[in-house]
């Protein structure tokens, strides 16, 4: 009995946990429910903000935007990229880059027979783009009419609210006026061939789409000249790293290579604020769970002081007593994580695939958007693997920290004094 194997400590610790089954189950419940809440909150944030960032990228600029160095500060068709195709090919050679598309964008004045309205335009090539690079090309976004068949037709597509403001109906003539690359005012005539709804009211009231080659001809651009290259990557979290890589590969004194969080600072600030709130909530939940575990372990240790004195008398060292209580903490963490996995799997899989339709709840508020990006009305989840790993590791560390002081108290017991306790 004087020699107690270190291999027996996990077994003894496991048995000790279940000597007071009710207390252990309550502690495990708090760990399980705490981890469940953290996983679900984080999964909602990871999915929601990742989807919003991808949608923002598909509204015009991509995950990374390559443009003239001065275009962001003073958007003008004078600030163009003259050799777009070689730059696009250079960007596509990078492993993280999935798509690169050419666009012309800027301010425009729209006129009908009865109304005039200031707006913005995006000129694109329908042969090179689809809904994965420009969300307006999704069939669900088209309210009436059709999209462009080629990049040199004489048509225009408007946000539905902008069409209403212009009193424009399908096949009506619309004159669009802009400033060309030389600073001269130029105009084009088009017929309204379609209206779209983006889900963002501000965007629906100011957006117009035009064919790329048609706009090139009007603003005196060369065949390989654009105002921006929109770069799309597989994982939006790599945007900054890809922007730095592209800047080192193709960057010049006349080009700016910007990740989405720089080109869309309002959206980046909003997401950072929401992520900060989620982290605070997770930390608060962890604090409450840790306090509960500490209380359980401390009470358990104080109730067993006489037992610890006897163990010291028969050969346990202070280190082994410390290890015993810490092993009990580790068992609580591991079993709690297992319980959390069982509790979370069902709801997570349902919300990841089907989600919850909140459109009825948000009906009175109308469409919701942040910085011109519509928020989805279907609540879904999808957690990043590293976020899940952080939660699991944090749960284990929090449980071990909760058991540290009780374990230290157990290791400082005096056998003679403890054995006298009744």
Keywords:
single chain; 422 residues; alpha+beta; 2 domains; six-stranded mixed β-barrel; two-stranded antiparallel sheet; 13 helices; 19% strand; elongated
Mean pLDDT: 85
What is the radius of gyration? 31 Å
Task: Bin the strand percentage.
Answer: 15-25%
Helix content: 40-55%
Q: So how many helices?
A: 13
> Which structural category fits the helices and strands?
alpha+beta
How would the global form be characterised? elongated
Unreliable stretches: none
Could you explain how this protein is built, in words?
This protein has 422 residues and is of the alpha+beta class. The chain has helices spanning 8-17, 21-61, 84-92, 160-165, 201-204, 212-218, 239-250, 260-263, 265-303, 305-313, 318-353, 385-411, 415-419; strands at 64-68, 97-111, 116-124, 142-145, 155-159, 173-179, 185-196, 207-211, 228-233, 255-259, 356-357, 369-370, 373-374, 378-379. The strands form three sheets. Strands 2-3-8-5-7-6 form a six-stranded mixed barrel. A two-stranded antiparallel sheet has the order 11-14. The two termini are 23 Å apart.
